[in-house]
Amino acid sequence: MPALAWASETPLYQSAPAWVSAAPALPAGPVDELPPLVLLDFQKRIEGDKLTSYVHQRTRIASAEMLSQAATLTLPWAPDKGDLIVHGLTILRDGQTIDLLAKGQRFTVLRREQALEQRELTGILTATLAVEGLEVGDLLDLRFSVTGRDPALGGRVQDVVPLPALPLRIGAGRVRYLWSNDSAPKYKLLADGVTATPVRKGDTTELSFALPLAKPKDMPEDAPARYRHPPLIEVASFADWTDVSRTFAPLYKTDGLIAPGSALANEVAAIEKAEATPLGRAQRALELVQGKIRYLAVGMDGGNYLPQAPAKTWEVRYGDCKAKTLMLLAMLHAMGIEAEPVVANVGLGDAVPERLPSAAAFNHVFVRATIGGEVLWLDGTGSNARLPDIRDTPGVGYVLPIRAAGATPMRIETHPNARPIASVTIDADESGAVDLPSPVEVTMVTHGQMAAQLRAAKSQVGPKEQHELISTILQQAVGEGQFAEGTITPDSASGDVVVRAKGVVNTSWSVEDRRRKRSLGGALGELNFTPDRSRPDWSSIPVAAPPPFGVERHVKVKLPDGGRGFTLEGAPDADQRLAGYVVKRTTRLSGGTMTMDERFDAAGTEVPAARIAVERDAVATAKANIPRVVAPVDTPRRWTLDDATLAKSSQVQAIRAIFGKAIAADPEEMSGYQSRAAFESGIGNYRAALADLDKVIAKEPSVDLYLQRSYAQFNLGDPTKALADAERARALDPAANGAIAQVAQTRAETGDLRGAVALLDERIALGGESRPFLRQMKASVLGEFGNPQEAVAFYDTLIAEKPGSPTLLNGRCWTKGTRNIMLDTALKDCTKAIELSDDTLAALDSRALVWYRMGRYPEALADLDTVLAANPDMAASRYVRAAVLKAMQRDGEAAGELALARRMNPTIDRQYARYGFKM
């Protein structure tokens, strides 16, 4: 192992080296017009295996905010590699130069490991200085150097500098490298629009170029990392990749690293005794390194590249990727398993072949093992790997094997992982009605890193936090809802962690083509593959791929009516590759139950530019063919079930039981009460909803909660209490449109039309974005409770200001129809609203009322049937349909419609009595 020569642990104060040239000239003009970064000059000299990096930075303190940021300087360096040398620190003010070093200011060294919270022990020291006397308008000028020599590089040198580019403004900037003519390191500029040619000056070669660089070319966000890396310059004295590989091979020699009879030797012997096969032994060794050695990056004492010895790693039970790799290699070699280290770049692995050969191109190391001719990639910094996972492939792009004979970068060909990160089983009872919430029993079996994270979380948090964690995880898997009886159960033998809970989640049924349908989209439904390659210079850029991962779902849904009339549409089964993903699915309807088993994997493979259009079409087609369960037209709905049927429904019973358990588990958490109130209100049990709303409002009042309680009070037949809650909502937010509308409507409902109109006029007079809504609300209130001619006249004014508004035309038609006036023009208003509107249901409903007033019952029935076919939930349409059927002497049908309308809206008789209806 190379010997370490420690430099100073405190900053040195010396003049700048003689090879440093004068800074580039600043642009002419007033100082206060310069950008805040006035000067940024990087000068670097390579001398054998030593790199000296000189920095000259001048900053204009343009504001008080900048003053607070710039007044404290921090300079990090690694004392095991070299020195921090401060050359100058001055303030330039109105032609004066204030030398802070001459005045005795000095940097103080912080020894705290600043990256320890990221599990890094870097050995980096930080010199800090609070600049005394700095003022807004000053120029702060700092010059310093950092020297570096890394014995692990075997006499070689390397450097990587991120390059500032536009739109960042710099008054003057430069990068300048110098080296002796006989050393000739290689360099590479990974940046757009910059060229630099080395120039010989005597016995020295100089390479320089100005900063900032031109703005990098725009790249699509989904381009691979090699297209999107920041501008860089790399300089290194490695001959090629083979030289890099050979240089580090001695650091990973394992001969004699596990002493006979040592604790680590005993671990190896135990593995060999327990496992008969090389594959099983490799897995057990990997499990030991992952599970018994915690990760801690060690960058001190030369640790940037020098791995910690396995015996030391086992003793202290921590290590970084280098230490874990060397320990795993030593164990595998001791068991006769072929293995070698490979270095990788996590994040820029696909760009490795374009990089300049150097160790700086990599930030990670792990093991490449070969067993029975099969290549395995074993990463000691991973977690929870088990035998089924041992053939998984990391999505890190290119790696460089570390060999005594040298090697060149090789690409890891990825494939889907053997196991998903999570396998979710969902058992849902939707047997009552398709528009009720879904009670579910959920089991999530997690593997690998996800399981390790859950195991750690369970050990670190209390029961309340565990419940919150379970809810968060399961809401991502099955949808938003309330969960109860949640458990997190680790299995040390398998490494899995199982999450179980019961929950109530929002319904997955929606209306499409006038039918209730339940999409089974899952991960495929969330897949968006819409790459933009419209620009000519983007046309050849592939689409990046996430690293391999998989998710699995097993869904079982109990359907209403024993599944009678339910069908499947779309493609029930699938086995296809789509844009770098693999989808496998089977879906069945049988015995009143829908079952689906699905596996969705990212394979970790890029989509070539030539296949983007094909894959985009394939993804769109696959998403269009996602299976959907289609309910029959007459499927039970919550409003078709009477109270007794609802009470006996296993779906409703499960919902109520889960809400009860969720609330009992944490009575001070209000979300359970709120969710239960919404459910009970949705099935017409306003009395039960009221009790929960009282509980929540007492602790966490809000505009929405007061309005919900107002709605419940109104439906319970108490408009006075409803008005009081609406007023409370408005007191919390006087400008809330919902509260204003509720107060105005309820005031009018309770006989205070004057007060309702006064409130609306007051808010209308204030103007603003809400004015159109409030004016329309005023017209509606006048039309329902006031003088209908006055209301129509007000609508005339509004329509004159906004002709062709289907909403206003429908409002005027509705007022004429409900108040039974001007029916001829009412019909014209409704018909025009239908012609102009994208959503015609409200206008069709209004026109049906006008047809009814005119005694044209078949036309009224036709419009109402159209409305209810599209939206069966419209209580008003059902009520008018009952009146139409009654007028047509179809009393039996009328009675059925009337019962449904009243179940949907308990106050509908009171509303339509104002319009002269007597049912």
Automatic annotation (TrEMBL):
- SUPFAM superfamilies tied to this protein: Cysteine proteinases, TPR-like
Q: Where is the DUF3857 domain?
A: 52-211
Give UniProt keywords alphabetically. Answer: Repeat, TPR repeat
Pfam families hit by this protein: DUF3857
Family matches, as InterPro entries? DUF3857, Papain-like_cys_pep_sf, TPR-like_helical_dom_sf, TPR_rpt, Ycf3
Put simply, this protein is called: Transglutaminase
Organism expressing this protein natively: Sphingomonas hankookensis
Which lineage? Bacteria, Pseudomonadati, Pseudomonadota, Alphaproteobacteria, Sphingomonadales
